[in-house]
Amino acid sequence: MTHWLFPLAALSLGLTTMSCDQISSTSVEAKEQRSVVASIPESPRVGFRAPSFSLPDLHGNEVNLSDLRGKVVLVNFWATWCGPCVVEMPSMEQLYREFHDEGFEILAVSSDLQGQRVTKPFKEQFGLTFPILHDLRQEVNAAYHIRSIPASVLVGKDGVITYRVPGARDWYSAKARNMIRQLLDTP
After folding, report:
1. Which residue in 43, 71, 31, 69 sits closest to 161, CA to CA?
2. Which of 55, 75, 85, 161 is catalytic?
3. Residue 78 — φ and ψ, nearest 5°?
4. Is the peptide bond before 121 cis (omega within 30 degrees of 0)?
5. How confident is the model at residue 89 (pLDDT cuts 50, 70, 90)?
6. Which residues contact 130 (CB under 8 A, 6 or more apart)?
7. pLDDT digits over 49-87, tens only?
8. Is 20 annotated as catalytic?
9. Which residues of 143-160 are buried (b: 16+ CB within 10 A; e: fewer)?
């Protein structure tokens, strides 16, 4: 195929082509955007970069929030003994199953002091597939200023907090699904 056929084929398929200048300017814009986000301080408030953390999951593997940059992340603070937490878990699972393949992640940060002795049976009982993390020292809860559970924080692809959600929610409601869809569609 000669070099001039590719743009014609792309145009005939309704695709847009970019020149080398456009590609390099796009790269520059992406770097500038990352630089702007990096300059935003960490804070548990909306509009700030989410405080970074690393916690063990049920298998003892460390899960780092910063490793999920580029995904929309719902950080949910909960415990097995919390009635409203138990009520919202099935709708969180539905949300996770619908959007996980599109770049959505849930990190369920448990406050249970007994750790996986209580969270593993809970996960199995409810058929949960999203990661459950253990905050045994309550350090992440403190960093996010969590005063009561359940509480959730939505982190955009850029690592910036977009919503703080106190209390239990129906995470599979049309409103919640639309909110996640909008965040996933945001560059």
Report:
1. 43
2. 85
3. -160, 180
4. no
5. very high
6. 92, 93, 96, 100, 105, 106, 107, 108
7. 999 999 999 999 999 999 999 999 999 999 999 999 999
8. no
9. bbebeebbbbbbbbbbbe
